[in-house]
């Protein structure tokens, strides 16, 4: 089979959107400049935990250019920000959901908490005025570690969350797990920390809010991944505004990685204030502000135990995790360490029983929520680190211990709620091993040893659940919103097409891949299809982009709308071709009468649809515009094996990645080039977590110590190798595209593969355990302590 034709499914079409990005003509939120707009600056708390005794804004209000200053007291009566997922604890009670005020009320709970919004003619005037606000704080003791926060005597952060506990939640059959452990031939154990990360999208959060007196409406431009959800939460739950009076536009967005899913206080305060000052308000976070106030990711402390029989078959797994929620419950915070984590603990394995218990605690830190992978990197890290450890404990090769336990029959019901529809874990493992040239590893290791270097190889056979949905399952698990997607296909009279999708592209290339889907299905040129997204004023509805759901859920909604277009086209064609509707076939852009050479092109049918007197319009509405909502039957389950090879210099502790091979199964692929780019990006983020990135708060003062790029190390090009990536395909069984998600896989597999490689390399130096990130200092210190021991 030759390469697919340009513009259709399977072709590596260059991204449509890149022309505007490469030529600087993208329209990001900060490029929006309504006439007469003002600038907002947020006064933020310098303390991790303090009572606000008094705020004096009098002097600041008199400063040059100041248009308005508002504090939590002005927003009295406005609701707090909602949490979108209700977790019910093991005690049968709903999680503790203390108020999350738009601007601090009575207390501040982390360094960076918003205390006031200052609006002025220029950003510098707003900054000067913010500095002139006098806040009288009574500083309180703070707690920043999620385990410490639960200890007796820890500072109490919210009245509504005794002992700082949000919930203790469990999944699985505890008694069956205990019984399986009792008869195990071997038990492997690990204590694991999953380090806190700061997202760092290239474009910081930004918003422009305006109010229009003429029709009592608001427009909000915001750097966001799901504008309809943003609008719904802001209007219905917080500000009490009629939804149809608020238009939310998320224009070009320079990356989100999860951090722009949420409804934040900043843009909510701006929409509220835009009516009070009756001028548009603009805010763009500075980088240091983003470090403090964007929702962070991960931050788990876990104890895991794996029970095995004498043949190294997994009998049971027991997991206890403490997860940080930060100072307030962010939009989806509660479901990340539960629904998106514990349900993935079966991994690719037949472990018959699993019990996971998760306690979520409040801390005096920025809120924690979904960050690329969200729960699934944490689960993969737990599973793949303990499997690695079991292989080491029992002296079984890493590929072998995995193979002995792979799931091979599908659909497969795991003991932690999910039903995997399809997969072939042997083939991704085989291929990854070939790509990594595992056979020759011992020779490479021996050669490195001659040079005084420690070489190691590590595996991660990950699985993830993405395409987040279906609504019924999510609803039963506590979701307070549906997880479907909407798509609308507008066929213009000339046969060109505009598609309106509820998904939001902020780097993933939907304008290209979705156009490929439409062009393929309708048999029309790729250039004739435009994709519109990110505007509640143009797109009917949408749940947005996260959880690698856009192709599987958003793409399928478009396919469903296309099916309706084709069905209507057949009716029109039947009339024009004087044939029965059931005899009309649609293929390669043509409607034809089966078994004849009579046909009409897609363009002819489109034009006819808009000239109703040419067909029996008493039976058919004019026009060719269809929409569909699609609620999938299941998650999709991308899976694969990542193999990492490292070389460590024991004198400096520097870990170098000499080889990284990833073989993934994303089902059918629309655009291989875009998918490869997604994998590269994800792997780099996963490697960032494992080697470099670490968010650290001072444990006494709660100050963010890693508040800039001087202290928070992002991965750079020379930190990552030239990746070897490959794919194998088992099509998803329940969406018409047969596609699974690919946007997070790299970040899910990479940390475990890399850290397993680091542990393999360090084993010869006597090091048993090291946490992420495997920084030179940590690695060197671990080698020194092992020497001393
Ligand atoms: N695709 C494909 N074939 C497949 C699967 C996907 O061609 N079998 C294509 C899709 O059509 C889409 C892209 O690959 O163009 C990613 O698709 P998908 O896996 O559906 O993921 P989403 O589009 O829903 O993107 C979300 C995902 C997540 S959850 C995070 S976090 C993330 C990521 O995407 N954030 C990103 N990738 C990112 N990339 C950039 N540049 N910036 C971010 O913020």
Can you tell me about this structure?
With 789 residues, this protein is α+β, with helices and mostly antiparallel strands. It folds into three domains: 4-25 and 484-630, Aldehyde Oxidoreductase, domain 4 (2-Layer Sandwich), CATH 3.30.365; 32-140 and 202-255 and 260-293, Aldehyde oxidase/xanthine dehydrogenase, a/b hammerhead (Aldehyde Oxidoreductase, domain 3, Alpha-Beta Complex), CATH 3.90.1170; 300-469 and 634-788, Aldehyde oxidase/xanthine dehydrogenase, molybdopterin binding domain (Aldehyde Oxidoreductase, domain 4, 2-Layer Sandwich), CATH 3.30.365. It is 27% helix and 23% strand. Strand 22 (584-587) and strand 23 form a beta hairpin. Helix 13 packs parallel to helix 14 and helix 16 crosses helix 17 (745-763). The longest helix is centred in the last third of the chain and has 27 residues, at 550-576. It starts with 17 loop residues before the first helix and ends with a helix. The structure holds pterin cytosine dinucleotide (MCN).
Structural features:
single chain; 789 residues; alpha+beta; Aldehyde Oxidoreductase, domain 4; Aldehyde Oxidoreductase, domain 3; 3 domains; seven-stranded mixed sheet; five-stranded mixed sheet; 18 helices; 28 strands; 23% strand; globular; binds pterin cytosine dinucleotide
């Amino acid at each position: 089979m030759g390469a697919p034709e340009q513009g259709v499914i399977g072709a590596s079409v260059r991204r449509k959107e890149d022309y505007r990005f490469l030529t600087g003509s993208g329209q990001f939120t900060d490029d929006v400049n309504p006439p007469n707009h003002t600038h907002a600056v947020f006064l933020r708390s310098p303390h991790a935990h303090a009572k606000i005794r008094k705020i004096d804004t009098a002097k600041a209000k008199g400063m040059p250019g100041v248009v308005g200053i508002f504090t939590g007291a002005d927003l009295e009566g406005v609701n707090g920000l909602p949490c979108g997922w209700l977790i019910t604890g093991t005690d049968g009670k709903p999680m503790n959901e203390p108020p999350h005020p738009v601007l601090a009320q009575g207390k501040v709970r982390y360094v960076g908490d918003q205390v006031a919004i200052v609006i002025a003619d220029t950003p510098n005037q707003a900054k000067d005025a913010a500095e002139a606000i006098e806040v009288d704080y009574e500083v309180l003791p703070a707690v920043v570690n999620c385990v410490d926060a639960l200890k007796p005597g820890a500072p109490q952060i919210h009245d509504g969350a005794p002992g700082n506990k949000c919930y203790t939640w469990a999944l699985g059959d505890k008694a069956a797990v205990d019984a399986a452990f009792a008869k195990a031939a071997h038990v492997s154990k690990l204590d694991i920390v999953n380090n806190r990360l700061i997202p760092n999208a290239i474009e910081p959060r930004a918003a422009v809010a305006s109010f229009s007196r003429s029709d009592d409406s608001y427009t909000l431009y915001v750097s966001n991944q799901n504008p309809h959800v943003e609008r719904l939460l802001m209007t219905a739950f917080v500000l009490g505004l009629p939804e149809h009076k608020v238009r939310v536009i998320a224009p070009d967005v320079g990356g989100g990685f999860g951090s722009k899913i949420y409804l934040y206080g900043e843009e909510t305060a701006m929409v509220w204030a835009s009516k009070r000052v009756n001028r548009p308000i603009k805010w763009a976070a500075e980088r240091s502000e983003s470090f403090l106030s964007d929702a962070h990711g991960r931050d788990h402390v876990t104890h895991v135990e794996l029970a095995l029989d004498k043949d190294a078959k997994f009998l049971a797994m027991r997991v206890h995790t403490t997860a940080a929620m930060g100072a307030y419950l962010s939009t989806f915070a509660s479901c990340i360490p539960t629904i998106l984590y514990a349900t993935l603990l079966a991994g690719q394995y037949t472990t018959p029983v699993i019990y996971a218990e998760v306690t979520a605690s409040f801390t005096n830190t920025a809120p924690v929520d979904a960050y690329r992978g969200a729960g699934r990197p944490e689960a993969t890290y737990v599973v793949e680190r303990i499997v690695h450890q079991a292989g080491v404990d029992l002296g079984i090769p890493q590929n072998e211990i995995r193979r002995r336990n792979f799931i091979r029959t599908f659909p497969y019901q795991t003991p932690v709620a999910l039903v995997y529809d399809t997969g072939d874990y042997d083939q991704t493992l085989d291929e990854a091993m070939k790509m990594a040239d595992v056979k020759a590893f011992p020779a490479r290791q021996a050669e490195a040893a001659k040079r005084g270097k420690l070489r190691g190889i590590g595996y991660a056979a990950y699985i993830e659940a993405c395409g987040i949905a279906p609504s019924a399952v999510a609803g039963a698990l506590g979701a307070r919103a549906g997880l479907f997607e909407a798509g609308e296909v507008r066929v213009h009279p000339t046969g060109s097409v505009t598609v309106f999708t509820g998904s939001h592209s902020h780097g993933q290339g939907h304008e290209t891949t979705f156009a490929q889907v439409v062009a393929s299905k309708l048999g029309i040129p790729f250039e004739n299809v435009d994709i519109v997204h990110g505007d509640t004023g143009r797109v009917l509805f949408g749940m947005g982009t996260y959880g690698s759901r856009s192709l599987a859920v958003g793409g399928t909604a478009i396919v469903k709308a296309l099916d309706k277009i084709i069905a209507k086209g057949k009716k029109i064609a039947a009339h024009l071709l004087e044939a029965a509707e059931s005899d009309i076939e649609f293929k390669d852009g043509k409607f034809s009468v089966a078994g004849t050479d009579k046909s009409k092109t897609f363009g002819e049918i489109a034009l006819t649809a808009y000239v109703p007197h040419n067909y029996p319009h008493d039976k058919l509405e004019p026009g060719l515009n269809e929409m569909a909502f699609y609620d999938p039957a299941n998650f999709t389950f991308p899976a694969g094996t990542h193999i990492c090879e490292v070389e460590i210099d024991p004198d400096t502790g520097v870990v170098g990645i000499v080889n990284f091979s990833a073989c993934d199964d994303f089902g059918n692929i629309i655009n291989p080039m875009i998918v490869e780019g997604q994998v590269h990006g994800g792997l780099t983020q996963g490697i960032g977590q494992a080697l470099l990135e670490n968010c650290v708060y001072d444990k006494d003062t709660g100050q963010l110590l890693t508040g800039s790029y001087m202290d928070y190390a992002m991965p750079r090009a020379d930190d990552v190798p030239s990746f070897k990536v490959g794919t194998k395909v088992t099509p998803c069984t329940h969406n018409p595209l047969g596609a699974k998600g690919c946007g997070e896989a790299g970040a899910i597999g990479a940390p475990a593969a890399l850290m397993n490689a680091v542990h393999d390399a360090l084993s010869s130096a006597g090091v048993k355990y090291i946490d992420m990130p495997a920084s030179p200092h940590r690695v060197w210190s671990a080698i020194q302590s092992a020497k001393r021991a």
